[in-house]
Design goal:
This protein is an alpha/beta fold. The chain has two domains: about 270 residues, Glycogen Phosphorylase B (Rossmann fold, 3-Layer(aba) Sandwich); about 190 residues, Glycogen Phosphorylase B (Rossmann fold, 3-Layer(aba) Sandwich). It is built from 19 helices and 19 strands. The strands form three sheets. Strands 1, 2, 3, 4, 5, 6, 7, 8, 12 and 13 form a ten-stranded mixed beta sheet that branches. It has a six-stranded parallel beta sheet with strand order 16-15-14-17-18-19, with helices on both faces. α1 packs across α19 and α10 crosses α14. The longest helix is centred in the N-terminal third of the chain and has 19 residues. The protein starts with a strand and ends with a helix. Bound molecules: adenosine-5'-diphosphate and alpha-D-glucopyranose.
C-alpha cells in the first residue's frame, strides 16, 4: 500500500508532544511491514535546510483569491531501512513557516494566521503528489492541522490521480480542534455550501477538526478507552455527537512505543543498561538521577518521577496548584523524593520553582531534555501521571518498559495500559485512581509509598510484569492496516 501521512509534527524534525513520536514510529512500523510510506510536514524555520535535499522546481498552491508558491525539500526518516526508507517531505513557504514556533510562540501561543498556514499546508499535499506523480492509496491525516486534507479530498481533489484514495483522520487530542473566525474560510477555496455540508460550522465559527471528522472515510483515536470516552459529553469537547454519529467508522488503536529509542537494554542516556535478567543498571540509574537532581543519594527511599507538558490536561493543577495542590503535603508528610522535568504554563512553572525552593525532597528542572527524560524513566521507582484526560499517553508505557511503576488516573490510554495493584494477590502493573482531586493523588501516592516500604517483594514482581508487556508498534501498525484495508474495500 502507498500511504501518505500528513501531519504538523514528526520526530526528529518537529515535536511539541507525543503526536510527533506517534507519526514517525507508526510510519516506520508500516514500512517494516512492506508498505510505501511518505510523510509530509511544513518546513518550520527550526528545521535546517542544509540537512535536507531540495526537489527541483516549485509548487503552486491555490489558496484564497490566488496562488502561493513554495519549495519542497526531502529527507529520509532516521531509523528507516535502506531497502524501504520512509521519505519525509517538507513544504517550504517563508511567510507561513519561516518563523520561530510550530503553532505559536510564548507571546502568541496560537499564531493569528494558523488557519491560513494550515489550510495552505493541506492544499499543498495534493499539489505535492501531483508534482512527484505519486498517488497514495491512503491519505492519513493527524489532528486538526491536517484535518482539512480529507475535506479537500472529498470536496474537489478526488480527481487526476486521487480517484481511488481513501482518507483516515486520527485524533491524538480532541482538546485541540482549530476553531477560528469563519472569515478564514476564504483561504480554503471551498464554496459556502461545503462549509455547511462538511460541518465546519461551530457556533458561527469555523472548526477544522469537526469538518475533518465529518468527512474522512475512517476515523480513529489512539486508545480504545479514549475512543469510548470521546463519545460522551464529559470527554467529547462538544464533538461527542459527531463521534457518536460516526461510531461505525471510528476505532481506538493503542499507540506503541519506539523500542529503538525507549529500551533499557540499549538506552545510551542511562549509566548502565539493564533488563529483567540483571536489574543492576536500574539501581545505577537511580543513583545518577539523585545526583543529577541534587538529591541525597539513597537507594532505599522511593523516587517518584514526572515528565510532562505543564498544562491542564496533565492534571498539574491538582498537584501544583497554589494552596490546594497535593505536592506540598506529599513531600512534607511522606518519606520520598519527587523529581519533575517539564515546561508549559507560566503559573505552573513558577509554582514548581516556588515549591522546589521550600522542599528539600522536591527537585525540578523546568525545560525540555531528552536525556533527562530517559534518566527519570529509568531511575525512578514510580512515575506520576494524574491526567485529566489522556488520549494515549506514552510515558506510562515507557515507565513500564523501564520497570518503573506508573501511578495514573483511570482515563484514556492510561486505563488501557496500567492494571491496578491488588495487594492480596500482588497482581497489577501500577497504581490507579479515579477522581481527579488532590486528595486522590495524595492517597494513591501514599499507597504506592506504603507498598514500597511494606510490600517490597510484590513491588519487585510488578516491575518485572511491567517490563514484560508488549507495547510494540508492530501490533498497532497491523490494526491500522486493517482499517486502511476495510476503507479501501468499499472505495
Ligand atoms: P502529550 O503528547 O500529551 O504531551 P505523551 O505522553 O503522548 O503526551 O507524549 C509526551 C512526550 O513528550 C513523551 O515522549 C515525553 O517524554 C515527552 N516530553 C514531554 N515533556 C518533556 C520534557 N520537558 N522534556 C523531555 N521530554 C518531554
Ligand atoms: C497527544 C495526546 C497523548 C498521545 C499523543 C500521541 O499528544 O495528548 O495522550 O499519546 O497525542 O498519540
Amino acid at each position: 500500500m502507498k500511504i501518505l501521512m500528513a501531519a504538523s509534527e514528526a520526530v526528529p524534525f518537529a515535536k511539541t508532544g507525543g503526536l510527533a513520536d506517534a507519526v514517525s514510529a507508526l510510519s516506520l512500523a508500516l514500512a517494516k511491514q512492506g508498505h510505501e510510506i511518505k510523510i509530509i510536514l511544513p518546513r518550520y524555520y527550526s528545521i535546517n535546510r542544509d540537512m535536507l535535499c531540495q526537489l527541483e522546481g516549485e509548487l503552486g498552491v491555490r489558496t484564497g483569491g490566488g496562488e502561493e508558491w513554495c519549495a519542497v525539500y526531502a529527507a529520509d526518516l532516521p531509523g528507516s531501512s535502506k531497502k524501504n526508507p520512509v521519505m519525509v517531505y517538507f513544504i517550504d513557504h517563508e511567510v507561513f513557516f519561516g518563523r520561530d514556533g510550530i503553532y505559536g510562540i510564548p507571546s502568541e501561543p496560537d499564531f493569528l494566521d494558523n488557519p491560513r498556514r494550515f489550510t495552505f499546508f493541506c492544499r499543498a499535499v495534493f499539489q505535492f503528489c501531483r508534482k512527484i506523480s505519486w498517488y497514495p492509496d491512503v491519505l492519513h491525516a493527524h489532528d486538526w492541522p491536517a484535518a482539512l486534507a480529507p475535506v479537500f479530498l472529498k470536496y474537489g481533489e478526488r480527481v487526476s490521480g486521487f480517484e481511488k484514495t481513501v482518507s483516515i483522520l486520527t485524533i491524538h487530542n480532541l482538546g485541540y480542534q482549530g476553531i477560528y473566525s469563519k472569515d478564514n474560510f476564504y483561504y480554503t477555496n471551498l464554496g459556502w455550501d461545503v462549509f455547511y455540508a462538511a460541518g465546519f460550522d461551530d457556533w458561527n465559527m469555523m472548526n477544522l477538526l469537526k469538518a475533518g471528522l465529518n468527512t474522512a472515510d475512517k476515523l480513529n483515536t489512539v486508545s480504545p478507552h479514549y475512543a469510548w470516552e470521546t463519545q460522551t459529553p464529559l470527554h467529547g469537547f462538544r464533538l461527542d455527537g459527531v463521534l457518536r454519529y460516526r461510531s461505525a467508522d471510528y476505532a481506538g488503536i493503542l499507540n506503541g512505543i519506539d523500542t529503538g529509542i525507549w529500551n533499557p537494554k540499549t538506552d545510551p542516556y542511562i549509566p548502565q543498561n539493564y533488563s529483567i535478567k540483571d536489574m543492576t543498571g536500574k539501581i545505577k540509574a537511580k543513583e545518577a538521577l539523585q545526583r543529577e537532581f541534587n538529591l541525597p543519594s539513597d537507594p532505599d527511599v522511593p523516587v517518584i518521577g514526572m515528565v510532562t507538558r505543564l498544562t491542564e490536561q496533565k492534571g498539574v493543577g491538582e498537584v501544583f496548584g497554589p494552596a490546594y495542590g497535593s505536592a506540598w503535603s506529599i513531600c512534607r508528610e511522606m518519606n520520598l523524593q519527587l523529581v519533575i522535568l517539564g515546561s508549559g504554563e507560566p503559573w505552573c512553572e513558577h509554582e514548581i520553582e516556588n515549591l522546589a525552593s521550600r522542599l528539600s525532597n522536591f527537585k525540578a528542572h523546568i525545560g525540555y531534555s531528552e536525556r533527562e527524560s530517559h534518566l527519570i524513566e529509568a531511575g525512578s521507582d514510580f512515575f506520576l501521571m494524574p491526567s485529566r484526560y489522556e488520549p494515549c499517553g506514552l510515558n506510562q508505557m515507557y515507565s513500564l518498559a523501564y520497570g518503573t511503576l506508573p501511578i495514573v488516573r483511570n482515563t484514556g490510554g492510561l486505563a488501557d495500559t496500567v492494571q491496578n495493584f491488588d495487594q492480596d494477590t500482588g497482581a497489577g502493573t501500577g497504581f490507579v485512581f479515579d477522581d481527579l482531586t488532590p486528595a486522590a493523588i495524595y492517597n494513591t501516592v501514599g499507597w504506592a509509598v506504603w507498598a514500597y516500604y511494606n510490600r517490597r517483594t510484590q513491588i519487585e514482581a510488578m516491575r518485572i510484569t511491567g517490563m514484560k508487556q508488549n507495547f510494540s508498534w508492530e501490533k498497532s501498525a497491523k490494526k491500522y492496516i486493517e482499517m486502511y484495508e476495510t476503507s479501501l474495500a468499499v472505495m
